[in-house]
Design brief:
Blueprint (H helix, E strand, L loop, with lengths): L6 H19 L3 H22 L3 H22 L7 H20 L8 H10 L4 H31 L2 H31 L7 H8 L8 E3 L6 E3 L1
Antiparallel strand pairs: 1-2
Helix pairs in contact: 1-2, 1-7, 2-3, 3-4, 4-6, 4-7, 5-6, 5-8, 6-7
Length: 224
């Protein structure tokens, strides 16, 4: 059964992000990179075990290579290499902006609509409109995240960049995610009530982020 409990990943992300930020503020740059390496390695192992797509596994391998380079450079005395730890925040927001935005193009199923279809097997017309607008909202958030993290990188203040990458943007993401679930429950009643953990389990489906066509019943997925 593909629905795995996602609590471990959430706790791992919170602990690691806070540890990385604290290390950067304390100017313990090597420690910050080592924590990030552990985080990336753990996610790679989890994705490999759960049968995630090759693209996700390759992305984690690339992050590990980048962080290993940063750690070596810091050990050699190049303190500015800490920027390699923060650079993925720009790239991650840009990639998410492109993924969400691409599904809003004509002929594409909005990403949140796809998640809803995976969760319940169908999407009503009312929910289809709602999930399209929600996909647009997430696209805007990631566009803002890309701009803000890039601006912090150009400004060159490592501590400010860390606040944005590891505290502000994750907090905004969590706030929108949880707040949307509360709003949906109030607006749509029983039909709109769903656990945030259930939604996360849908998002961790190995093929949830790939274009797909769904059979009318259950979770039978046909990839297009």
């Amino acid at each position: 059964m593909w629905r795995r409990r996602p609590e471990s990943r959430i706790v791992l992300a919170i602990v690691c992000f806070l540890a990385i930020h604290i290390a950067i503020v304390k100017e313990a740059h090597a420690a910050a990179v080592m924590v990030a390496l552990c985080y990336a390695g753990a996610n790679l192992a989890l994705d490999w075990n759960l049968g995630a797509t090759a693209g996700r596994r390759i992305a984690w391998i690339a992050v590990i290579v980048l962080l290993s380079s940063a750690l070596i450079a810091i050990w050699l005395g190049y303190a500015s290499a800490i920027a390699l730890l923060l650079a993925p925040s720009v790239l991650a927001n840009l990639v998410m902006f492109c993924i969400f935005g691409q599904t809003l193009l004509p002929g594409q199923e909005p990403l949140i609509t796809r998640f809803r279809r995976l969760e319940v097997g169908h999407v009503t017309a009312e929910f289809e409109q709602y999930t399209r607008r929600l996909t647009m909202l997430w696209t805007i958030l990631f566009a803002i995240g890309t701009f803000v993290s890039l601006a912090a990188a150009i400004y060159g203040d490592i501590e400010l960049w860390s606040w944005i990458a590891f505290v502000l943007l994750p907090a905004l993401t969590a706030g929108l995610f949880l707040g949307e679930h509360v709003y949906r429950a109030f607006r749509y009643g029983a039909e709109g009530r769903t656990s945030p953990l259930r939604t996360l389990s849908v998002m961790f489906h190995p093929h949830a982020w790939l274009p797909q066509t769904v059979e009318p019943q259950g979770d039978n997925i046909r990839h297009g």
